[in-house]
TrEMBL record:
One family name in Pfam for this protein: ABC_tran
Alphabetized InterPro entries for the sequence: AAA+_ATPase, ABC_ATPase_HisP-typ, ABC_transporter-like_ATP-bd, ABC_transporter-like_CS, Ectoine_EhuA, MetN_ABC_transporter-like, P-loop_NTPase
Protein's membrane topology: Peripheral membrane protein
GO molecular function: ATP binding
NCBIfam families: ectoine_ehuA (TIGR03005)
Protein name (record): Ectoine/hydroxyectoine ABC transporter ATP-binding protein EhuA
Domain ABC transporter: 6-251
SUPFAM superfamilies found in the cross-reference section: P-loop containing nucleoside triphosphate hydrolases (SSF52540)
Keywords of this entry: Amino-acid transport, ATP-binding, Cell membrane, Membrane, Nucleotide-binding, Transport
Length: 258
């Protein structure tokens, strides 16, 4: 049996009095494409942020490639060696946010070489070779010397995808990657993500409100509500034949809004 690349086990998460996750459990297999859907405020972004170690779960375990993210302390407290180990495990996880957050004073190429040089320790030449290859892959091979401000929002988001890919992650996280874009720019970004999904060598966890897109690219759709996983399965099962009232109501509300 293959070991899941990512495991959430009994995750609890509260912000002061607000209990966001009550008991969230999910395994993601190598190469699997999982989309997370759910009502606004149900904790989708929080799940992604916990996996990026940007938020700490209140309880439960998050395991990446067999390593328990929040329990890596060898001596019961965080040491420099633990932090280094954590950074290494975390470098298996790439992230594309809603807002692309490129460095405005750096060229597109340099935006993509900073992390491989400083986190992975690649030489400038190696990092540039990888970055050019990834920028080519997202259709921006001719923009390496431009600055972010010279690119459209859709192009900037494609740079953000290339920047994450340069780290050769085993899992890519996308948190509503098109929601900050003008509608006419959404398609080009979704096409790049779809392409990556079809290559099949990376796992992906996507938080998206683009249901048609989720239907097309996902191996599995996960519906969360009230702090837990309510339903999951193949897109045709979850989106076309919901079993629970909560999912049925969510999809109905969603369809009347679109
Ligand atoms: N740092 C924080 N401090 C306090 N509350 C927070 C924090 N981050 C998130 N929350 C709250 O946790 C809940 C879940 O937020 P989250 O952003 O994960 O939801 P979501 O499902 O991604 O929502 P949306 O679909 O609207 O993006 C919300 O009520 C939010 O206000």
């Amino acid at each position: 049996m293959t070991q899941p690349i990512v495991q959430f086990k009994g995750i609890k998460k509260s912000f002061d009095e607000l209990e966001v996750m009550k008991d969230f459990t999910l395994d993601v297999d190598p190469g699997e494409i999982v989309s997370i859907i759910g009502p606004s405020g149900s904790g989708k972004t929080t799940i992604i942020r916990m996996l990026m170690t940007l938020e700490k779960p209140t309880g439960g375990d998050i395991i990446v490639e067999g390593e328990n993210l929040w329990k890596m302390q060898a001596k019961g407290k965080w040491t420099d060696a633990d932090e280094k180990h954590l950074r290494k495990v975390r470098s298996n996880v790439g992230m594309v946010f809603q807002h692309f957050n490129l460095f405005p004073h750096m060229t597109i190429l340099r935006n993509c070489t900073e992390a491989p040089i400083h986190v992975l320790g690649l030489s400038k030449k190696e990092a540039e070779t990888r970055a050019r290859e990834m920028l080519e892959k997202v259709g921006l091979g001719d923009k390496v010397d431009n600055y972010p401000i010279q690119l459209s929002g859709g192009q900037q988001q494609r740079v953000a995808i290339a920047r994450a890919l340069v780290m050769q992650p085993k899992v890519m996280l996308f948190d509503e990657p098109t929601s900050a874009l003008d509608p006419e720019l959404v398609g080009e970004v979704l096409a790049v993500i779809k392409d990556l999904a079809q290559q099949g060598d990376m796992s992906m966890i996507l938080v998206t409100h683009e249901m048609d897109f989720a239907w097309q690219v996902s191996d599995r759709i996960v519906f969360i509500a009230d702090g837990q996983l309510v339903e999951h399965g193949k897109p045709s099962d979850v989106l076309d034949n919901p079993k629970s009232d909560r999912l049925r109501n969510f999809l109905e509300r969603f369809r009347t809004q679109v």
